[in-house]
Amino acid sequence: MCRMAVSPVIPTLRYRDASAAIAFLVEGLEFRLSARYPEDGEQVDHAELLRGDGMVMLGSMSAAELQLPVGGSSVYLVVATDDEVDRLHERAVKAGAINVIAPRNEDYGGRGASVRDAEGNAWSIGSYRPDA
Fold this sequence. Notes:
The chain is of the alpha/beta class. It contains 2 helices and 8 strands; from the N terminus they run βαββββαβββ. Helix content is about 20%, strand content about 35%.
């Protein structure tokens, strides 16, 4: 079995409608669903979504023993180019996200934008790489 390297820091999110969140992340932010338990239905006990070498895990609010609040989280997606910031921001808004910050050049370098998903989580998209 070949497993890809994934960051050791993985955001975990809870949603009232986890199935809709998965659809948004796949359609709007180009994540790839790699695991979902159970595989169908309203309830999502656990899901893993990949984007590059990053991952988010999520599930239905009612599935969590650890009761995390819904919404209010913030995740930063690093993309390769300034043009990709603009393209992904537009795609996310078309998939139902609310524009928070339109694409702009940042004082600290790179280009950035932010959207909010249907349940209040912020998704920032940027070409700035903290490790570069």
